[in-house]
Amino acid sequence: xxxxxGVTGLAVMGANLARNLARNGYTVALHNRxxxxxDALINSYSSEGEFVRTESLAELVGALQxxxxxxxxxxAGAPVDAVIDELVPLLDEGDIVIDAGNxxxxxxxxxxxxxxxxxxxxxxxxxxGGEEGALHGPSIMPGGSRESYETLGPMLEKIAADYHGEPxxxxxxxxxxxxxxxxxxxxIEYADMQVIGEAYDLMRQLAGLxxxxxxxxxxxxxxxxxxxxxxxITSEVLEQEDELTGRxxxxxxxxxxxxKGTGRWTAISGLEVGSPVTTIAESVFARSISSQQQxxxxxxxxxxxxxxxxxxxxxxxxxxEARQSFVEDIRKxxxxxxxxxxxxxxxxxxxxxxxxGWDLDMRTIASLWRAGCIIRADLLDxxxxxxQHADERPANLLLAPEFTEAINECLxxxxxxxxxxxxxxxPAPVFSSSLAYYDSLRAERLPASLTQGLRDYFGAHTYxxxxxxxxxxxxxxxxxxxAEV
Length: 485
Ligand code: NBP
Description:
alpha/beta; Single alpha-helices involved in coiled-coils or other helix-helix interfaces; two-stranded antiparallel ribbon; globular; binds nicotinamide 8-bromo-adenine dinucleotide phosphate
């Protein structure tokens, strides 16, 4: 029987996607560079559906019905090119090559262009949800040609996460759009985790709330506007005890956060498309600082005395009603910061759409993140509502009426929390930078006017005036009169 789809690359993600496809009734041809992984999958899971074992890419291609669909799930980077180079001569016009790994979107754009030259469809697909998602239903963000989605889309929609009967999968745009959207998803995920971390740190250091007590707080928060997968699993991690020492697990884990690079890509791309994704960039930098263990140690010793504050934090926030209201302030600061990070992420998508010629639909993108992926959250329903009417889209998510109201509601608490963090020396880079972003957007005047004056002074970079059109320069080294240039 000719297989519906071939999967090459059967490490954890590829194997689970292949099983997901088979469980949904598709016949799946399997291939892995080392046949042992193919055999392991067939030996353990052949009862789940129809699998066709193959040992070479030529055999894999030969096992497929036309147009052929080959899903590549190998390590991102050079391995993807190696597989593509071997595959292309084996395929015919109209066949579809799918890269569902975490490839950089520029590489996807390059590969799509090359394969288009061979009459092939190349579809870069963003997949989120980790191993469990791949098996039970991930969030799927496909790019590539619209035409390829006609045959591929129904299969992907069938294996995707389901949100109240709607699949978390839809075509997002041409060439690298799918991988770009997945990259921004990961950037937002960095910011989501960082704001949760900042909330935890402030509650612990200033209000003395122990991890197990905080587990209850996060559980409670999960019944509010903050309801999300990441808030839910935060309670689970915080209440986990270390088997060896009996201490909270979070206290025995080294405080150096790892990263695989998608957050960094998002921050870099934000700079490139001119979109200020400050919350995402700060989250990436926060992980970098955390990993500077040696420098942190010597800096701590060098500045041991600290700055100090007139009133000890525990006298202000440590007990009773004061503690309760500080915790509520932190919840609001977290929510407002989270809104800013989503607003920045969607702004970045708009800027990238203009830069790369993608007609990205923000409502659809929000809908894809409602289930299956790491940033799934109730908030996404509200974001979809904000983008509901194509002709009335807010210029920035913060300007959607529901979010303007929420920011106004959270603002005093947000300011109090950022002030407390600064006063007592608890780092809260995303709480602070998101507030600075909001304040910058709504400022009547920014000091950019002085920046322009300085640029004109040392580099004759010119400036524009508030009261008349034109471009001007001061003859700084002469008589300091203004010239129109
Ligand atoms: P890995 O990223 O660990 O890659 C291992 C696979 O790549 C194996 O099948 C390996 O074959 C194959 N491979 C390598 Br390495 N070099 C190759 C080459 N030159 N030619 C052919 N095959 C080669 O697997 P993964 O963790 O399953 O992730 C797959 C993709 O999915 C990655 O892009 C990853 O970033 C992405 N992703 C992962 C997750 C997650 O939670 N893990 C989530 C979302 C996306 P071998 O068996 O012969 O060595």
